[in-house]
Amino acid sequence: xVELDIVKSLNYFDLQCNLTLGNxxxxxxxxxxxxxxxxxxxxxxxxxxxxxxxxxDNKIVFSSSExxxxxxxxxxxxxLFQNYALFPHMTVEENILFGVKNQKNYDISYIKYITExxxxxxxxxxxxxxxxxxxxxxxxxARALAIKPNVLMLDEPFxxxxxxxxxxVYKEFIEYKKQFKMSIFLVTHDPYEAELLADRSIIINEGVxxxxxxxxxxxxxxx
Length: 223
Description:
By secondary structure, the chain is of the alpha/beta class. It has helices at about 35-45, 90-95, 110-115, 135-145, 165-180, 190-195, 215-220; strands spanning about 1-10, 15-20, 25-30, 50-55, 60-65, 70, 75-80, 150-155, 185, 200-205, 210-215. The chain has a domain at about 1-75 and about 190-223: P-loop containing nucleotide triphosphate hydrolases (Rossmann fold, 3-Layer(aba) Sandwich). It is about 30% helix and about 25% strand. The protein is globular and about 45 Å long. The two termini are about 30 Å apart. This is ATP-binding cassette domain-containing protein.
């Protein structure tokens, strides 16, 4: 569960976000610069709110009143960036293990499970420039999940994929979310994508949450 009630001053407006998320997927929609990615960055600890509080699984990770601001590594957040941010000099396996390699006893069986789930185990010795866009997306998602995060944040994760690859990846993602039960934020500009993949959808306009609705199940059931 994620609970946040924060204010963050941006260039032209103040971002105001009061939101609670359980084990579900919430889509954040809005124009470029509306504050969607800033919300993710504040939860992850990349950016710091001016005032407010953020809790992840009932643990305070940020509180302006209590002077708490946990570092990124202590928040147990998985983050999939729009460009995937895979390290080009590392193999697929090294990319996936990057976040856990300094842990003395990371769960090897879990790593095997997610690579098999995403059907990328055969790619382990390849470099990012040797795999397709859809494969890069799955590798980046596996890396985000390798740390066993309490919350997963996806910033335009499908934007770089072509239409045919998106169709395949959408179906795969719907299956994935049944297996990995956690709070998931999905930033997207695509209303169809939001309705297809999310349980709830929120529209953000100049830093303000202006509309919230349940995602439509009709589209999802049609797949």
